[in-house]
Amino acid sequence: MDVGTGSGILAVWAAQAGAKRVYAIEYTDMAKHARNVVKSNGLDHIVTVIQGAVEDVELPDEDWELFGLTLEEGDNEFEEGGKKNLRVVDIIISEWMGYFLLRESMLDSLVRGRDKFLKSKTGLMLPSHATMLLAPIVDEEERRAQHNEYAASMEDWKEFAETTQNMYGVDMSCLEADFEREQKEYYILSSRWAELGTGAILAEPSIVKTYDMAVCTVEDARGVGLLPGKDGGNGIPFDFDVVGRRQDSSSSLSGPVSGFAGWFTVDFKSRTDTIGRDAAPSIPNPAYLSTGPEMGYTHWGQQVFHLPSAIPILADQTTRIQGTLEMMRTKESARLYNCRFRFSASRRKTGVEKEGAVLMQGEPAELVYQIP
Description:
22% of the residues lie in helices and 29% in strands. It has 372 residues and is α+β, with helices and mostly antiparallel strands. The strands form 4 sheets. Strands 6, 7, 8, 11, 12 and 13 form a 6-stranded antiparallel beta sheet that branches. Strands 9, 10, 14, 15, 16 and 17 form a 6-stranded antiparallel beta sheet that branches. A 3-stranded parallel beta sheet has the order 1-2-3, with helices on one face.
């Protein structure tokens, strides 16, 4: 089963790889184009495109006998409430990932589809695992460009307000605070897609969250670092050390810290959960995809969260950036997310232990970014 098939290309590849039956699920009208692609490739006897939400669709009745669809040993033909048990799918494939993994993704739909159709003990999810990563970066040219655009926008407003007052006698100053907030959210507190080089990464990336696709839940899809059922929480901790060059070194000084970058990796490997690791088929040749800077261009790139002010990096000193990250859905759309960073920066002599003497301790900061 291909969940969110789009053009149908993954479903076509599955059939070409030898699947005897493929269900390609697509909610939008792209389903009609997927049918054309399937038919044009002579695979409509194997691939059936079904339009609808994966939570709501049903399998064709005739397929049970025609293709010998079977439940796992020990499964009942009917579930509680009298509904027919549909857990006959051996593999679910899906390109569900969005920017920084979750943005505009359909993870919750995928989880519901898994729980409805996938064989619980032997079924495979591809990708099988997903990991979110975060790192501090240097990206001053882009950070400053955003600030210049913000400043230019505010200058335009000032000119507009003065013209309106002087020429037409209308005072627009009551709108200035809201306009400034909107411009700041757009230019300063919105993440940006980027294709960073490895030289932009200033510290070892930190794992934000890892998803095991065989067992993750709809609650997991709500975000990261949240309390159950809440829009906030304690966050996922991060703790970065950015080391300045030695005073006697001829190498260029790293930094400053322009912000944070987030990306993800996915694995295609054997099941690791308690139920599936012994019962499910093993994958002898696991595969791996990273959207990090080391991979060059990918569709997903990295999401960059620029700071309002850069954090300087000084020679012979280590700057520690310690804090938490929360990622939560916006109130306007379940497909869009905001990120809340709470952090502080401190400096110590390079070589001094993390909890050793501090030369400078910055004030705590809290920044909320939208991922547009």
